User: Which sequence fits this backbone?
């Protein structure tokens, strides 16, 4: 796991700018950092140059300096900077060795480099894992960016007349942008308010974009032409699911640094723990977030599972006070991002990285097996599939009542209305806060209506949106902020294909996940099926009434200034007053506004640096 960045063009980039880029990436890669520079003719150069590859390393496989990046081939005409982890590549490496390629490290970085040399950009189909890869091919005068299939690893980019730049994070890309190209995006702000995150391809800046999952990007170093291509869509493959699951877990245990497991009381992480135990990974350290004295504390159940499997378990108490860490947490979330569970995830990762450097997690299970309640709720409304009342205006107001939410939904077709099941502020609330701007219904990427079954359609919408832009973005940002690598076996693309091939009667079982009874056999009980599903929810109300209360006075005027008047000061303050007066259901939306205030203030300060 690492931080990557690069820039190519005609504008010489000052050493101070390079230092700011690297500084923004160091928390992702604390073990080593390097840079390669080329002049305008793409000959190797000193630091004051218009072209560069930058890398900060979290060393997990082959931590020797020989495996540091950027890494070049023997001829010095192909280079790679890479963030992620690729698994199960030994057989392909043998093919490359037989073809004459010499391996000087044990790193997957060198494998990807030689795989590109041998198979070209189609090597992406041989990569099993998570990755954001930059490859500079001086033979073709090309820069390639490759993002993994499900979107575990991030990459953002900017194209201008004088060049192109990319980075793992928005904050690392920002220093390359000229000062007059650092304007906040009005659509990005509205998208954040709608979704609590900014879905790809948008970012908080007009000049920056996010490469969607399963895409490659080619930038022509000679002409400046840019093209993108989607290289993968999930297709069913009839493999036995449990052996495929075991293989996905086993290959993710390979590491030269200590390995652990995020363990909750839920089925997904419990299934991973059981399979690890069955494979003989005894005494593996597990980590659980604890909320002592609250109804959503699941540390006791997780401890029971760990004890039955022989795993040590560390319950990490999530602090009741977040005021001191709040600015750092918002900074580590890169741009406005308001999943309340990101705060306990950040604390969980901070403590975990003091013990291990690699951790397995259960992300992706709900999106594969239909585990969220919102699926059933939205399926109950499919009766009105052909009823769309587009002429209705979103009913502006605070804390939309039932009829207001119904109007919001009826304005959209049935698939698009699913976006409102997982939203931040409703269109009506956004219309109230930003009276001079008509709110978009949503900013999600919707797949073509190909006639797939209703639940399958909702799961595909989540694959394109909530999974990469919410669930996995949180996991990446919160773990990498502390130099911790998280691996997600459920999101192995071979396992995804095996699950898609299952009959619906097996894949979508009740009680929840009966399919996983064989996987959970080592704990020999039915408790994981009987437990009520819990969200990973922090004590939000207490934070707003305590730690974050000092941020509420003047919130309206600050947000009006930061958004250039997009949000009306009086309307924001009215929102705060409604929450104080006891309006229900406004806590998460108010947290969105508080985070937006802190995030935009930080980004504006960074944007003001020449």
Assistant:
């Amino acid at each position: 796991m690492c931080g990557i960045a690069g820039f190519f063009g005609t504008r010489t980039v000052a050493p101070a700018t390079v230092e700011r880029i690297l500084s923004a990436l160091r928390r992702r890669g604390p073990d080593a950092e390097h840079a390669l520079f080329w002049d305008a003719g793409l000959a190797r150069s000193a630091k004051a140059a218009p072209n560069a590859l930058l890398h900060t390393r979290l060393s997990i496989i082959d931590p020797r300096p020989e495996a540091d990046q950027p890494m070049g081939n023997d001829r010095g005409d192909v280079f790679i900077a890479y963030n992620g982890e690729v698994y199960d590549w030994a057989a392909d490496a043998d093919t490359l060795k037989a073809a004459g390629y010499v391996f000087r490290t044990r790193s997957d970085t060198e494998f990807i480099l030689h795989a590109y040399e041998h198979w070209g950009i189609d090597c992406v189909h041989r990569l099993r894992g998570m990755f954001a890869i930059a490859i500079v091919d001086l033979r073709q005068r090309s820069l390639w960016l490759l993002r993994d299939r499900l979107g575990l690893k991030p990459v953002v980019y900017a194209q201008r007349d004088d060049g192109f730049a990319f980075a793992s994070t928005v904050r690392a890309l920002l220093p390359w942008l000229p000062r007059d190209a650092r304007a906040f995006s009005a659509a990005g702000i509205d998208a954040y308010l709608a979704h609590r995150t900014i879905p790809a391809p948008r970012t908080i800046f007009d000049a920056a974009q996010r490469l969607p999952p399963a895409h490659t990007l080619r930038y022509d170093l000679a002409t400046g032409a840019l093209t993108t291509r989607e290289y993968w869509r999930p297709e069913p493959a009839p493999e036995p699911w449990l052996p495929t699951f075991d293989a996905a877990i086993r290959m993710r245990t390979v590491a030269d640094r200590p390995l652990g497991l995020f363990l909750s009381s839920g089925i997904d992480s419990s299934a991973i723990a059981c399979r690890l135990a069955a494979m003989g990974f005894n005494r593996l350290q597990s980590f659980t977030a604890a909320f002592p004295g609250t109804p959503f504390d699941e540390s006791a159940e997780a401890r029971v599972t760990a004890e039955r499997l022989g795993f040590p378990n560390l319950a990490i108490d999530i602090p009741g006070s977040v005021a001191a860490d709040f600015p750092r947490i918002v900074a580590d979330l890169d741009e406005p991002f308001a999943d309340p569970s990101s705060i306990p995830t950040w604390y969980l990762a901070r403590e975990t990285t003091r013990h291990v450097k690699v951790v397995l997690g259960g992300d992706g299970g709900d999106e594969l097996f239909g585990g969220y309640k919102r699926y059933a709720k939205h399926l109950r409304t499919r009766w009105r599939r052909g009823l769309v009342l587009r002429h209705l205006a979103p009913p502006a107001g605070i804390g939309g009542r039932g009829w207001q939410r119904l109007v919001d939904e009826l304005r959209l077709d049935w698939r698009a209305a699913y976006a409102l099941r997982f939203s931040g502020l409703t269109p009506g609330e956004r219309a109230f806060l930003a009276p001079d701007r008509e709110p978009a219904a949503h900013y999600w990427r919707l797949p073509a209506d190909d006639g797939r079954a209703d639940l399958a359609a909702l799961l595909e919408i989540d694959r394109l949106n909530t999974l990469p832009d919410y669930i996995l973005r949180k996991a990446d940002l919160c773990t990498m902020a502390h130099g911790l690598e998280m691996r997600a076996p459920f999101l192995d693309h071979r396992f995804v294909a095996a699950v898609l091939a299952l009959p619906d009667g097996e894949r979508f079982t009740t009680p929840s996940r009966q399919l996983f009874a064989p996987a959970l056999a080592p704990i020999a009980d039915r408790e994981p099926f009987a437990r009520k599903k819990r969200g990973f929810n922090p004590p939000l109300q207490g934070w707003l009434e305590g730690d974050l209360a000092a941020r509420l006075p003047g919130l309206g005027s600050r947000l009006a200034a930061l958004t250039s008047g997009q949000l009306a000061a009086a309307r924001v303050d009215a929102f705060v007053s409604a929450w104080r007066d006891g309006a229900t259901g406004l806590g998460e939306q108010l947290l969105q506004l508080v985070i937006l205030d802190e995030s935009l203030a930080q980004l504006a300060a960074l944007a003001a640096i020449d």
Notes: The mean pLDDT is 92. The first helix runs from residue 15 to 25.
